[in-house]
Amino acid sequence: MTVTVSRLLITLSVLGSLSLSGCMGSAHDSGFLYKNLPVADGTAIAGEGHTILFKGSPLMLAGTGITVGDQLRDVKLAQTDLSLVNIVDTKGKGKVRIISVVPSLDTKVCEQQTHFLSEKNKGLDKMVELITVSIDTPFAQKRFADEAKIHNVTFLSDYREADFGKAYGLFLKDLHILARTIMVVDKQNVIRYLQITPELAQLPDMEKAFQFARSLITAS
User: Fold this and answer.
1) Cα 159 to Cα 4: distance, rounded to the nearest angstrom
2) How confident is the model at residue 180 (pLDDT cuts 50, 70, 90)?
3) What is the pTM of this model?
4) Which residue in 127, 143, 144 sits closest to 184, CA to CA?
5) Active-site residue numbers?
6) Are 199 and 53 in contact (CB under 8 A)?
7) How far, in whole angstroms, is CA 109 from its chain's centroid?
């Protein structure tokens, strides 16, 4: 079996497991069915030489790690219309931004993370830019946003060369996906809050990220 085929099978296995995580929940006003999914406690460390877990098995991270206090790094990502934009220069530049990074929108955990970002922010979307980054193609991101009726989130795709994942130390090279992450960036493009879930199948603490974003707005 070639390395490429082996990697594909592993990736499909991981994404399939993420898709099946949780099957019970309560209806939300939008029609999305929220599941009772585990929320991660603590954070992993980004970058080469560090790992996250998937159901207890380690996955190696690649790239130059980021940490709180770092500036956003110049990386171009594809928008849903295929045009490129630098993550530093999105439409929310000069405002607080919340960047949610997911492995694939076609899994239940990532789907819930993105709905939570869009629907549970309690009005933050009027004051900050909400961004979702994944390696899904721009076409898949647009389809997801349209079907989910999510219009208050900027979707950016790292599908071309995983430049974002590598530049931020969030690239799982063996699976060619991104580590699950939530970060809050201030008006000066400084990363002020960062959580990389130590277990890929767990959600980040979105409420804590929202609270931190509010604190930055209040302080300013």
Assistant:
1) 17
2) very high
3) 0.88
4) 127
5) 110
6) yes
7) 11
